[in-house]
Write a structure and sequence with these properties.
579 residues; alpha+beta; five-stranded antiparallel beta sheet; five-stranded mixed beta sheet; 20 strands; nucleotide-binding
Length: 579
């Protein structure tokens, strides 16, 4: 797997992991929000709200009702009972009915109508919810003992007369009510308050028609709980207000369970995310720290010390395998290796070139100093006593001064040529020329030179023209360099053969001599303009730039040059030029 794919994979699964974490956290927040809403609704309408939630969440299939066990548990904790009655009056689902032995297994129409009207059944307060969500209607009945209602009925029987509290019992009942912070009101059919007994600091003084029903169904919206008993004979209604009992707030049991589960999952994910984040931070940070150390050492030029022994132990195992936390950066580390190796080689090559350049400059300084010293010496001689020298001596001095000047001009010319050729193609004037004729003329010039009589030159070429696109002047200089080198670096009697023709659809020039050849070191540095091959038993003339100039000319023509040579076995120079 490539580094791009590995990086994409690693960061993708991290993104997915943290996205899932955010989704879970969002779900938990949403569930907490809805749980708070439903819990407030249940608390506000308890126990009517509980019955509504049960009816909404119940499942009915094939005559069987399914209700969450959490609701069953809540009903049992509150001491309530629940029955679900089918359309035929049969109880098809019951919760916590065992302690209440008087509850029937089926109901008649009269019983159901009485329960619906009075909201009571025997000694129980009953709330009903008729549900039409399924094919057949179902009646949900939630009942619970009501001590306050029992107490109110007992007081009505003990202290009531013509629908109101007897006057002689008012003071006694008032003390009992104040002990519990309760309050008793008697209202007539027109909702006028007839009597008020007990602690009535927060009790409403007048009621509209729906106020009593609202207090009964939403007790949490008011300061007190109430129960009411209506005397059918007198039409009076006794209402008992009692303080809210201190108990834990009600919560939706199903959502409470789901919330706890999601919170556990979220905490687990967070606990997993923490070590994973630390591990990823260490995994991605440790290599970066290592790379920083490498860059620092590279900045100091310590290329051979970029990977220290300590770094090697961090990155690689004893068996040479890369450690897991660094495999993600495998290509980067390998590139570091290659780069540092190349930089180290470049640094060594730079040092070698500087050394060679210094040696070459030293040689060039020597080559310039020697002819200048000769010219300067003859100048002093001619300046001091010119009349003492004969014509022949004067001719010899002038000839020597000219030769030394020519040598210095040649040296300076080579410097200029190297600089010009390095500037690119701007100085080259390409046109179609006949390479056969150019090489033939170059060889013929050396054959006809009387000073070259001790050397033998042989030319072998094709009869038909070999046309190429080239700069004639620079190719002539190329041939001069090659032929002059064959003369300068070989003893008299050497044979120089020059061949011109075609090879692999390219123009080919070969210059072959049977001279003393070159050793491996000289051959290796032959085209280096900062290197001069020298022998202790020979004084070699020239600037040492001849072959460097030759190579530069060939490359400027998009060609190739190769040299083969062995000591005392001669030299072969082969040049290939495009047609």
């Amino acid at each position: 797997m490539k580094i791009q794919q590995r990086m994409a994979f690693h960061f993708t699964y991290q993104l997915i992991f943290y996205a899932l974490l955010m989704v879970v956290i969002t779900l938990v927040a949403c569930i907490l929000f809805f749980q708070n809403m439903t819990s407030n609704e249940i608390r506000r309408n308890f126990p009517v709200g509980v019955l509504q939630q049960i009816a909404q969440e119940a499942h009915y299939k094939d005559g069987t009702i399914q209700i969450s066990p959490e609701w069953d548990k809540l009903i049992e904790e509150k001491g309530m009972w629940l029955q679900v009655v089918s359309a035929e009056g049969e109880v098809i689902y019951a919760v916590n009915t065992t302690p209440h032995h008087t509850l029937p297994a089926s109901y008649s129409i009269a019983q159901l109508l009485d329960i619906q009207e009075t909201r009571t059944f025997e000694t129980y307060a009953v709330h009903t919810q008729l549900n039409f969500a399924f094919q057949d209607p179902l009646l949900y009945m939630l009942g619970y003992p009501s001590p306050d209602l029992d107490q109110l009925v007992a007081w009505f029987d003990a202290y009531g007369q013509l629908g109101i509290v007897r006057s002689e019992a008012v003071s006694h009942l008032d003390r009992r009510l104040r002990k519990t912070g309760s309050y008793l009101q008697v209202i007539d059919p027109e909702s006028h308050i007839v009597q008020g007994i007990g602690d009535g600091a927060y009790v409403q003084k007048a009621y509209r028609q729906l106020d009593i029903l609202a207090i009964q169904q939403s007790p949490s919206n008011y300061d007190t709980n109430i129960v009411a008993h209506r005397d059918k004979l007198s039409g009076m209604t006794w209402i008992l207000y009692t303080p809210h009992a201190a108990e834990a707030p009600l919560k939706h049991p199903v959502m409470e369970k789901a919330t706890r589960g999601l919170i556990r999952i979220t905490v687990l994910i967070l606990l997993l995310a923490l070590p994973i984040s630390i591990w990823h931070g260490y995994r991605y940070g440790q290599p970066l720290i290592l790379f920083a150390g490498w860059f620092e050492r590279m900045g100091r030029g310590q290329y051979d010390q970029v990977l220290t022994a300590k770094d090697m132990r961090k990155v690689f195992r004893r068996n040479g395998m890369m450690r897991i936390r660094y495999r993600l950066y495998k290509e980067v580390i390998e590139s570091f290796y290659q780069m540092t190796h190349q930089l180290a080689q470049i640094e060594k090559e730079r040092e070698r070139l500087e050394k060679a350049q210094a040696e070459w400059m030293s040689g060039i300084s020597h080559d310039l100093r020697t002819p200048l010293a000769t010219i300067q010496g003859y100048g002093y001689m001619l300046e001091s006593l010119p009349e003492q020298w004969s014509q022949e001596e004067m001719r010899i001095m002038g000839s020597t001064i000219r030769e030394k000047g020519d040598y210095m001009l040649e040296l300076i010319s080579d410097f200029s040529l190297i600089h010009q050729l390095k500037q690119g193609d701007s100085i080259l004037k390409f046109r179609e020329i006949d390479l056969v004729e150019l090489v033939r003329c170059s060889v013929l010039k050396y054959v006809n030179d009387a000073m070259m009589s001790e050397y033998q030159f042989h030319y072998v070429g094709e009869d038909c023209p070999l046309l190429i696109q080239a700069d004639e002047t620079w190719l002539m200089r190329l041939m001069d360099n090659l032929l002059s080198n064959a003369v300068k670096h070989n003893p008299p009697g050497v044979i120089v053969n020059v061949y011109v023709g075609r090879m692999n659809d390219k123009a080919c020039i070969r210059v072959i001599d049977n001279g003393k050849g070159m050793d491996e070191e000289t051959l290796h540095h032959l085209f280096n303009r900062y290197y001069r091959g020298t022998n202790s038993d020979e004084s070699t003339e020239g600037s040492g730039l001849g072959m460097s100039i030759a190579k530069t000319i060939v490359e400027a023509h998009s060609g190739e040059i190769q040299v083969k040579s062995k000591v005392w076995q001669g030299t072969i120079i082969e040049i290939l030029l495009p047609n």
